[in-house]
Design goal:
The longest helix has about 40 residues, at about 65-105. This protein has helices at about 5-30, 45-55, 65-105. The chain is mainly α. Among the domains are: about 1-30; about 65-100.
Length: about 110
């Protein structure tokens, strides 16, 4: 085949594809008016934004070093109490399991 003939066929195919694209775009644009769009219309403003914009921004709260130290000490006490309660609870469970095991192997 001649190169010029191949290029001419490619150009013809491109032209037909562009026409098909134009038709599809026109169909899509004509259907936009038929279907109602979902959500808030473009360009509308939110009335809640306007009222919140007038309020001054809240300052970020921060802990003083003394307050941070008090909280840390309270948490350490809390975890120490939990650590002390855990072995007691484990001992109670172990005692109950032993009592059940001793009663179970009764044979006649």
């Amino acid at each position: 085949m001649d190169i010029r003939k191949i290029v001419a066929e490619i150009d013809a195919k491109i032209a037909s594809l562009q026409q098909a694209r134009a038709v599809l775009v026109d169909l899509d644009e004509s259907n936009e008016g038929l279907k109602p769009r979902r959500g808030r219309p473009k360009g509308s403003t939110n009335s809640a934004k306007a009222t919140t914009a007038a309020k001054p921004a809240k300052r970020k709260r921060s802990l003083s070093p003394e307050g941070r130290k008090r909280i840390a000490e309270a948490m350490k006490r809390r975890w120490a109490e939990r650590r002390n309660e855990a072995p007691k609870a484990a001992k109670k469970v172990a005692v109950k399991k032993e009592a059940v095991k001793k009663e179970a192997p009764v044979k006649k």
